[in-house]
Amino acid sequence: MADAPEKSNSANGKRGRFFEWLDRRTGIDSMLHEALDEPIPGGARWAYVFGSVLLFLFISQTITGVFLALYYVPSATSAHTTVAYIVKEVTGGSFLRSLHAYGSSAIVVVVLLHLTQTYLYGAYKGRRELLWISGCVLLALMLAMAFTGYLLPWDQKAYFATTVGTNMASDIPFVGTWVKRFMRGGDEMGTLTISRFFVAHVFVLPAALIAFIASHVYLFRKAGAAGPPSEDALNPKMPTERFYPKQVVMDTIVALVMILILGSMAHFLPMELGPKANPADTQYVPRPEWYYLPIFQWLKYWRGPYAIFGIIIIPTITAALLVLVPFIDRRLERRPWRRPISVGVFVLILAGFVGMGFMSIRDDQRDPSIAKQVARQHEATEEFMHSPFEPEGAASALSASVVAVLDPVAGAGRKVYESESCDACHGEAGAGGAAIKLAGTVAQMPAEELEKLLKQPNAAMTEGGMQPIQVSDEELKALVAYIKSLK
Amino acid sequence: MDELAHSTRAGRESTAPVDSVSRRSFLTVLLGFVSVVMGAALSVPLIRFALHPLVATTTKIGWSDVGKLDEFTSLTAPVKKLIKIDQRDAWRRIVSEKPVYVLPPKDGVVRVLSPICPHLGCSIPWNEDKQEFICPCHTAIFAKDGSHISGPAPRAMDDLETKVEDGMVKVHYQYFRQLIPQKEPLS
């Protein structure tokens, strides 16, 4: 440290001429001062890091997202294959995808922390209404990003969670059905749904996010940093400290810790990809991403004629309350212990959210049939993750039609396979799904053994939800011939 | 920059004058260093991800059927055949068609030529009237057996590896480097 001034002085001397040249053309010097010398009443604090960390995470999401788009194709036929290609084949693909997926969760966490800090510090007071509202818009945009991004891998959980998510829209009075069809691009989920979600996720929402981040930062600088709760909201009196260096260092440290956590999670616990979406699967238990669990749980309580209260009216009032807080709570008092009502309501709603999230998890654990199905879905995901990458246009899809032509018995068996809904769990042409893959290992078992297992499933199969097949002997023989033909 | 910073809001600074040139500069250097190191570390997986297609091992092209040996025994001039190649195109498995020339066999040995000009890679057609292969791009001319007659090509047309199995002529399709006098397969 002792010789630091000397070093930096000589560095300044060298930088001086070039810097002057640059400054005369760009005005970078005043820009840097504007950015770095922002006064913070009461000095730098760890409590103020969340905004910068969010900006950092947003940039990280943008970069990883752009790179993922190098290999992703938004269509019902290719989306799942290309994500599987990214995860299983491309160098560092699983890592980058995990960084992007976990990054979205991290943003939700930090947005909530940012919101809570701002609320508890009363930092929305003192001509900061527009700043607060732009923040609320950013919260909504971030949640929309999470919702649209979730569908894009087109695996089982993405498909079914989004089916439920878009269905909820149909509860909106008058325009509900139209909104649902608008989001899906039709009555059903399909390739147009992916296109729409992709365009929203990659073009529309990011553009809106950038615009609102810019206005949020601008409005923040216009109003000035609010400082601690004891500071006056309109006319700050406390001695100030500049944003740079202390606050910058704090922000950077938290951003680094964030990237270390996300990086280790992406490396050691990579995000999994489930089997391709299978709309014929009637057993699938859809569950949203963790941050949507409270809403998911809340909706369980509202059935029948009063559902509109739970699904539309109460959420709208809550959202309106949040957005309008600076207009409702107009006093300049910022200290949380002097604002028992506004802080009390906030804590209550927050606790309600957290509580409902946990109740949703507990409900699933307590219901044995759901717990079993969720475990089965987890197994199917594990199996898919451990199977090698299967390129598009490969054998499985072709073999079914080829078989029907080549061997009439197996062709008849294929009809049995479909009419008995075997494909609902074992996938088209036995490619696997909620239940195990038939093509390959199972198909190589002796015919007699297969017949026996189909008539009397063993314990493990029953456990997995397999029912005894009740068809004529002839049909059973055909079914076995078909299974044995699967490759 | 540092002088300017002092003049602006120095009066309201809460920290002691120690927070001056030395500390700020040290932190600038430290921050810059940490950011550069982190940025470099983070860009490694991104670069590897983007460069994947350049380093990934391409799928080996196997043997493709050209036709029955009997078809070719009585040939008097080269004949164009389309062969099918199973290929991986990133996440797709595709079957692509490629043209090859089967030459009239000598001593029962069938030769198959790649139609790609060793000069700049144009597809060379067989000219029935002149009984020569004439490249349409820069008029390199090759004889009936593929040997180089005139024009800018650095070597003869490239032979493809062939074999006969159960009376079926099979060929191993390959690409070769252009513009060099010797035949060198591209991996």
Description of the molecule:
Helix content of chain A is 67%, strand content 1%. By secondary structure, chain A is an all-alpha fold. Chain A has 2 domains: 323 residues, Cytochrome Bc1 Complex, Chain C (Up-down Bundle); 91 residues, Cytochrome Bc1 Complex, Chain D, domain 2 (Orthogonal Bundle), CATH 1.10.760. Chain A has a two-stranded antiparallel ribbon. In chain A, α11 packs across α13. Chain A is elongated. The N terminus of chain A is likely disordered. Chain B is α+β, with helices and mostly antiparallel strands and 187 residues long. Chain B contains 4 helices and 10 strands; from the N terminus they run αααβαβββββββββ. In chain B, the strands form 2 sheets. A 6-stranded antiparallel β-sheet of chain B has the order 1-10-9-4-3-2. The N terminus of chain B is likely disordered.
Question: Which strand order do you get reading across the main beta sheet of chain B?
Answer: 1-10-9-4-3-2
**Order of SSEs of chain B, N→C?**
HHHEHEEEEEEEEE
Which stretches of chain B are low in confidence, meaning pLDDT under 50 for 5 or more residues running?
Answer: 1-18
> What's the total helix number of chain B?
4
- State which percent range the strand residues of chain B make up: 25-35%
Secondary structure: elements and pairs:
The complex is a heterodimer of chains A (487) and B (187).
Chain A: H1 4-26, H2 28-36, E1 39-41, H3 50-68, H4 79-88, H5 93-120, H6 129-151, H7 156-168, H8 176-184, H9 191-223, E2 240-242, H10 243-268, H11 293-300, H12 307-328, H13 340-366, H14 368-386, H15 395-406, H16 408-419, H17 422-426, H18 447-455, H19 459-463, H20 473-485
Antiparallel strand pairs in A: 1-2
Helix pairs in contact in A: 3-5, 3-10, 4-5, 5-6, 5-10, 6-9, 6-12, 11-13, 15-16, 16-20, 18-20
Chain B: H1 2-9, H2 21-50, H3 52-55, E1 63-68, H4 69-73, E2 79-89, E3 92-102, E4 112-113, E5 126-127, E6 132-134, E7 141-142, E8 148-150, E9 159-165, E10 168-172
Antiparallel strand pairs in B: 1-10, 2-3, 3-4, 4-9, 5-6, 6-7, 7-8, 9-10
